[in-house]
From TrEMBL:
<dbReference type="InterPro" id="IPR044643">
    <property type="entry name" value="TrpF_fam"/>
</dbReference>
<dbReference type="Pfam" id="PF00697">
    <property type="entry name" value="PRAI"/>
</dbReference>
<dbReference type="GO" id="GO:0000162">
    <property type="term" value="P:L-tryptophan biosynthetic process"/>
</dbReference>
<feature type="domain" description="N-(5'phosphoribosyl) anthranilate isomerase (PRAI)">
    <location>
        <begin position="2"/>
        <end position="184"/>
    </location>
</feature>
<comment type="similarity">
    <text>Belongs to the TrpF family.</text>
</comment>
<dbReference type="InterPro" id="IPR001240">
    <property type="entry name" value="PRAI_dom"/>
</dbReference>
<keyword id="KW-0057">Aromatic amino acid biosynthesis</keyword>
<keyword id="KW-0413">Isomerase</keyword>
<keyword id="KW-0028">Amino-acid biosynthesis</keyword>
<comment type="pathway">
    <text>Amino-acid biosynthesis; L-tryptophan biosynthesis; L-tryptophan from chorismate: step 3/5.</text>
</comment>
<keyword id="KW-0822">Tryptophan biosynthesis</keyword>
<dbReference type="InterPro" id="IPR013785">
    <property type="entry name" value="Aldolase_TIM"/>
</dbReference>
<protein>
    <recommendedName>
        <fullName>N-(5'-phosphoribosyl)anthranilate isomerase</fullName>
        <ecNumber>5.3.1.24</ecNumber>
    </recommendedName>
</protein>
<dbReference type="InterPro" id="IPR011060">
    <property type="entry name" value="RibuloseP-bd_barrel"/>
</dbReference>
<dbReference type="GO" id="GO:0004640">
    <property type="term" value="F:phosphoribosylanthranilate isomerase activity"/>
</dbReference>
Length: 197
């Protein structure tokens, strides 16, 4: 996390859903105690209750919430901090319910694999109708790594990019990969959100 912050990450993610990267709210608070206020702390949830999300926001000091489950727009609108709603993109098709989330940030991701919350695989960028994303704030995730992040940014012109497994070696965050990812993404002036372990 220190490497990400020192190299200019604008967001830091904490996974509160079932995952090998899952942390508790208390662990997130401890891990982020030295993160400057200019860096947004984002909590990733999958079909959690509003009470659980609210408690985690309070304990961990979250600035944003990323929803990776079946959460509705009515649910998202009740969350006290800004919301990023993730959508798995299959065959390049944007789900119809993206439109309901236009006032929130959306996250374009590959469909989930073992756990909801992303698979680390790239979706078919070239099949996405980019014109339909006009007016949206959106992040791109799914299979991003230091080698392809600049291409993703050039292709999508997104609000930001989101990475987790793409900056790992043998399942652990790799400081060299984090630094290179951030360096390559900053060349094109966007934001990024590495997830913390």
């Amino acid at each position: 996390m220190k490497t990400a912050v020192e190299n200019g990450a604008s967001h830091i993610g904490f996974v509160f859903a079932k995952s090998k990267r899952q942390v508790t709210p208390e662990q997130a608070r401890q891990l982020s105690k030295d993160v400057p206020k200019s860096v947004k702390k984002v909590g990733l949830f999958v079909n959690a209750s509003l009470d659980e999300i609210a408690q985690t926001i309070k304990i961990a000091g979250l600035d944003m919430v990323q929803l990776h489950g079946d959460e509705s727009i009515a649910f998202a609108n009740q969350i006290a901090v800004p919301v990023i709603k993730a959508f798995g993109i299959k065959n390049g098709k944007l789900p119809s319910d993206i439109a309901a989330f236009k006032n929130h940030v959306i996250l374009l991701d590959a469909p989930p694999a073992q756990f909801a919350g992303g698979s680390g695989q790239q979706f078919e960028w070239e099949k996405v109708a980019l014109s339909k994303l006009s007016g949206y704030q959106f992040f791109v995730a799914g299979g991003l790594n230091p080698d392809n992040v600049s291409k993703a940014i050039s292709f999508f012109q997104p609000t930001g990019v989101d990475v987790s497994s793409g900056v790992e070696t043998d399942g652990k965050k790799d400081v060299k990969k984090i630094s290179l990812f951030l360096e390559n993404s900053k060349k094109l002036s966007t934001h990024d959100m590495p997830e913390a372990d």
